[in-house]
Amino acid sequence: MNMNRRDAMKMGALGVAAVAATGMSGCTSAEVKPAASAGGGKVLGKHKVIIIGGGFGGLTVANNLMKKNKGLDVLVIEKNDTFMACPVSNTYLGKLEGMNLGTFVFDYAQPVEKHGYKMLKSEVVAIDRGAKTVTTAAGTVGYEILVLSPGIAYDYEGQFPTWSKEKIAKVARSAPAALIPGSEHVALERQLANMEDGDVIITVPNGKFRCPPAPFERASMIAAYMNKEDIRGKVIVLNPKSKFAKFGAFMESWKDLYADRIVYVPNAKIEDVDANAKTISYSTAATDMDDATNKTINYEVLNLMPNNKANPVVQMASLKTSDDSFHKVLMNGCSFQTATDNDVYAVGDVVAHAIPPSGQTAVWAGKQCAAEITARLAGKSHTLAVKLTPVKAGNVCYSMVGDKPEEGIMVTHDFSWTGKVIKGKGHVPKAASGKFRSKGTAKALRDWYSGIMADLFA
Is the pLDDT of residue 336 over 50? Predict the structure, then answer.
């Protein structure tokens, strides 16, 4: 084992932790803070358009609104100091060449200066649609049009109803999910850098969750990392379902590249975690092939990704949502205007359209939403093009599966209007070799990421 390199990585993890942790933390529960906690009831003004959330969707809406009307009064409310991109972040965990924390962290000053909108760094604590105000920890702002792009929260309480708040906090801290931008990615990277030998366990959320291929790309990258560092142990993936996004492509890649490293356990329900003993208990239901099981296994590193739900901002806005545990925002037909309020729009993870929750989809939806709002402000009607003609490859999602050589797989989604929702139909292509993975797809992943970040921040 190359201990010199491993020791250097451990020291490096400590060095970047402080950078990533500043002002960046995920929302782990549905806690809704009262408006009274805001900055003394201070009134901060009124804006034509307020966008809550400075992620892929929110920034795309802001950038495109300003491109169409430089004089438009747009305010983005974002609680984090800096932007952190989750797409491609698994390659950071895999320690692929050139992938470091600086690859994923960006300064909000760049798009603000370029496009000319305003930005308020604060946390939203209440929304009053009647008064058309958003209350933040810094004070209250008014709007004419509100856009919600708040992302996800973790639903530990719904998934583990017997866990105390203290246990949830301990598990969240010791087994970081790393699906929300912030210090979770750094904490997980530090644990991997510090580990010697042992198993890494990755749990997969049930229901809708951010970036469906993410847990399985992460398994591939951690397996690649363990191979490089000669770490003895398995990467065990506990999935509550039998299959998943890009299933055939991942299974083929795992068989070829990580047959002795990755263990896939389908239909696995997480029952409990003992963070002190470093054990996880799970059960599997009986199938035609296997009997029901109950197991408790040890881990060296646990990446527990809990079930996802819409960010509490959706609850604050009292919008009509789906009946499932995620609470997706119901939309007004073929539009990104909400079904509840004509003055409130939504993009990103929280929308109820049947399109994949990904960075690329959020960018596509952000552009559509901006076009809708621009037409409305100009007194014009607007019909989304997807209502008339299907959109080819509205979403393109890459996953890195190999290192040395780098190889990737991909899925594309064509978007169409069903009469009820905008729906995505996926296709996982094979390379000329007849395999799903290829070096060309890995290069396309890097090129896509460079292009989309340049579009947001250049």
Answer: yes
